[in-house]
Amino acid sequence: MKPASTVAGHADRIASGFTVMKPDGPGPFPVVLQMHGCAGAQPFQRHYAVEAVKAGAAVVIVDSLKPRGLSRLDGSLFVCTGTMLRGAQRAADLYAVIHWLKGQGWADSRRIVAAGWSHGGWTIMDALAQGDGAARMTGLADAGPDLLRGLRGTFLVYPYAAYPSLTTNRGWNGARPRVFAVLGGRDAVVGVKHPQRSLDRLKRDGLAVDVLTFPEATHAFDDDDANDPRTQYRADLSSQARAYYVNALKASFA
Q1: Separation CA 142–CA 8 (nearest Å)
Q2: Are strands 178-184 and 29-35 parallel, antiparallel or unpaired?
Q3: Start and end of every Xaa-Pro dipeptidyl-peptidase-like domain (predicted)?
Q4: Rounded (5°) CA angle 238-240-243
Q5: Following CA atoms 129, 134, 140, 144 in sequence, which dihedral angle do they give, to the nearest 10 degrees?
Q6: Prior bond to 159 cis, omega within 30?
Q7: Dihedrals φ, ψ of 56, to 5°?
Q8: What is the pTM of this model?
Q9: Neighbours of 144 (CB within 10 A)
Q10: Tens digits of pLDDT across the chain (254 residues)
Q11: β-bridge pairing 18-21 and 58-62
Q12: Rounded distance, CA 161 to CA 170, Å?
């Protein structure tokens, strides 16, 4: 599925992939947008979402595969290998869900955190790095940095940041959300070097960057359903990561 020609049109096409979780009451609530890894939305993301709701935020889990007719296997074969839906293209989904939030009475669209795991982190970082090139890269004629002004923070968990990701070379084109990141010292999928280089670039640009590194963590250490032999689930580290997530949200929304 190619994106529609406008952000609003693309939002209509992918809205079936939005799962909303929110506190009781009418709101408006600050909102966390959760962007999954390359193989699609996974059950462990709900553990993070539950903690966010307890902290008073609404959560939108954005499934980028299902509205495109892609299965988890398709994600593993094509998205994870970079054959299709790279971060710069998938950034269309971030613009779309932010536009969609403006029409939701329960959402405070001026207080948003974008949280991404692996490919989802790449997507968020590329969206912020695209600047005036967003329309060309996403295929959405009206995509651009103005749509991202409501972002108060980013939460990046083992984000992919090697070629062809954009942040290390471009920075974030004047966008200044707070940056929180979780890296694994034994990550054999995205490594540590490239994510750290991107984060260092953002620090040099004057952004507030906070990094939690688990020296013994692999990629997807917080996914209790992961089946990649390069990953190892760690319940203890997962609990710490979720606590860090809540603190990052509170700091971003304050």
Answers
A1: 9
A2: unpaired
A3: 19-139
A4: 110
A5: 90
A6: no
A7: 100, 10
A8: 0.97
A9: 17
A10: 555 589 999 999 999 999 999 999 999 999 999 999 999 999 999 999 999 999 999 999 999 999 999 999 999 999 999 999 999 999 999 999 999 999 999 999 999 999 999 999 999 999 999 999 999 999 999 999 999 998 999 999 999 999 999 999 999 988 999 999 999 999 999 999 999 999 999 999 999 999 999 999 999 999 999 989 999 999 999 999 999 999 999 999 99
A11: antiparallel
A12: 12
Residues in the chain: 254
Please state, as a whole number, how many other Cβ atoms lie within 10 Å of the Cβ of residue 54. 10
Three-state DSSP string of the chain: CCCCCCHHHHHHHHHHHEEEECCCCCCCEEEEEEECCCCCCCCHHHHHHHHHHHCCCEEEEECCCHHHCCCHHHHHHHHCCCCCCCHHHHHHHHHHHHHHHCCCCCEEEEEEEEEEECHHHHHHHHHHHHHHHHHHHHCCCCCCHHHHCCEEEEEEECCCCCCCCCHHHHCCCCCCCEEEEEEECCCCCCCCHHHHHHHHHHHHCCCCEEEEEECCCCCCCCCCCCCCCCCCCCHHHHHHHHHHHHHHHHHHHC
Enter the tokens of residue 133. 């090139």
